[in-house]
């Protein structure tokens, strides 16, 4: 929780929050938020989810109990030990939203940036990634922040506009193997079936917006765009397939990857788990329109929590769980590396032993006596002098049999004549 420069030390016990005076001045009295974090869906007219646990904590806060001024300097501010430092991308997002002092050099220009946040999500067929089935687009105009208090989260989320497009040529292709596709479950409006040839013009209209508030002398001026996504690289490549190159657009002044920001904050990088960590209740993920909305919401919630709003308990629980998973993963990696090293050492010993055996076999004839060598030579010569026996053919066998029969017949005739 951030306050003015005169904020005193913070001391927390269960659901009570007490502020103690600082030597710099009176304690900072935070105004209780006028809302509960909830998702307002366009086209439905009623909130989709809320956080009763956080509401009870805030409503149960008692008025601060002040200690004597002498004790104020004895206490030090308490902060969660697992809370990581604010990543630069998140700090820049907070400055864009006006909830943090604008210290980045991009705000040094005299012209107000007032960017439009554009989030893109693309779904492709699992068996053929070249066949794009859905496009989701969520946009938020930072000029809509005028008159909205940073603590009014529900009012801010209502300003997000979400669209869902189904590619007509691939509308029959629905993912089932790796993820469960749900193109008919768009939760923030109506889906539009369009041919693939029309997506390029839709993307141009999304990223190239004329600035209606520009003076007459600069009517061609376009709005600044902040591109938001969850793993930006994949969505940028998919847009290129439709002939729209994001690198060629000067209107895009910045890019924000919600997955990178979540990882830097120690939160889950998976979109569904990230939404649960932020206190949300996502429905029908892997619908491109829903995913685009949840991605933009996650980016805004990460910017607001811990700055303009207190963090929900689910964020700290998610951080602790991620730390535990990383520790277990590190132990497994170390064990795997140890086994790999042991196996490598064993293979080296086996290879060295085989090399020694081959060397001994090569040197053995040189160590034998001359007599043994001559004896081996005689044996080999006698084997070579023996004629090879040729197996008689069937015709030869028959000829021999005929000759034998003739001789026996002749012998019998001679015996009959009394010659023998």
UniProtKB/TrEMBL annotation:
GO cellular component terms attached to this protein's record: nucleus
Compositionally biased intervals (Basic and acidic residues): 355-379, 410-420
One example GO MF annotation: nucleic acid binding
Gfd2/YDR514C-like C-terminal domain sequence ranges: 116-301
Region (Disordered) residue spans: 21-55, 353-420
Protein name: Gfd2/YDR514C-like C-terminal domain-containing protein
Lineage: Eukaryota, Fungi, Dikarya, Ascomycota, Pezizomycotina
Gene3D superfamilies: Ribonuclease H-like superfamily/Ribonuclease H
Superkingdom of the organism of origin: Eukaryota
Composition skew (Basic residues), residue ranges: 380-389, 399-409
PANTHER family listed in its UniProt record: GOOD FOR FULL DBP5 ACTIVITY PROTEIN 2
Biased composition (Pro residues): 23-35
Alphabetical list of Pfam families matching this protein: DEDDh_C
């Amino acid at each position: 929780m951030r306050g003015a420069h005169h904020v005193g030390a913070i001391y927390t016990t269960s659901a009570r929050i007490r502020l103690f005076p600082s030597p710099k001045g009176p304690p900072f009295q935070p105004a209780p938020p006028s809302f509960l974090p909830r998702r307002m869906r366009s086209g439905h007219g009623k909130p989709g989810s809320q956080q009763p646990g956080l509401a009870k904590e805030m409503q149960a806060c008692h008025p601060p109990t002040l200690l004597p001024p002498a004790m104020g300097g004895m206490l030090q501010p308490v902060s969660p030990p697992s809370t990581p430092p604010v990543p630069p991308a998140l700090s820049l997002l907070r400055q864009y939203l006006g909830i943090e002092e604008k210290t980045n050099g991009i705000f040094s220009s005299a012209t107000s940036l007032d960017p439009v946040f554009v989030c893109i999500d693309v779904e492709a067929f699992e068996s053929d990634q070249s066949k794009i089935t859905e496009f989701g687009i969520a946009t938020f105009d930072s000029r809509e922040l005028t008159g909205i208090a940073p603590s009014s989260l529900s009012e801010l989320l209502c300003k997000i506009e979400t669209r869902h497009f189904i590619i007509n040529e691939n509308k029959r292709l629905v993912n089932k193997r790796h993820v469960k596709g749900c193109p008919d479950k768009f939760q923030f409006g109506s889906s539009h079936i369009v041919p693939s040839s029309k997506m390029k013009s839709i993307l141009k209209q999304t990223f190239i917006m004329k600035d209606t508030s520009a003076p007459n002398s600069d009517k061609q001026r376009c709005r600044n765009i902040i591109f938001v996504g969850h793993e930006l690289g994949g969505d940028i490549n998919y847009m290129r397939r439709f002939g729209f190159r994001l690198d060629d657009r000067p209107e895009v002044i910045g890019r924000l990857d919600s997955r990178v920001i979540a990882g830097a904050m120690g939160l889950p990088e998976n979109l569904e788990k990230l939404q649960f960590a932020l206190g949300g209740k996502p429905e029908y993920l892997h619908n491109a329109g829903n995913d685009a909305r949840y991605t933009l919401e996650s980016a805004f919630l990460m910017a607001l929590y811990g700055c303009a709003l207190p963090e929900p308990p689910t964020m700290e629980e998610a951080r602790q769980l991620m730390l535990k998973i990383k520790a277990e993963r590190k132990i497994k990696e170390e064990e795997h590396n140890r086994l790999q090293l042991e196996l490598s050492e064993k293979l080296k010993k086996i290879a060295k032993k085989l090399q020694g055996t081959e060397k001994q076999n090569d040197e053995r004839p040189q160590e034998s006596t001359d007599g043994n060598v001559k004896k081996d030579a005689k044996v080999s010569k006698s084997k070579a002098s023996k004629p090879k026996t040729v197996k008689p053919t069937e015709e030869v066998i028959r000829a021999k049999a005929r000759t034998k029969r003739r001789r026996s017949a002749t012998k019998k005739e001679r015996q009959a004549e009394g010659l023998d």
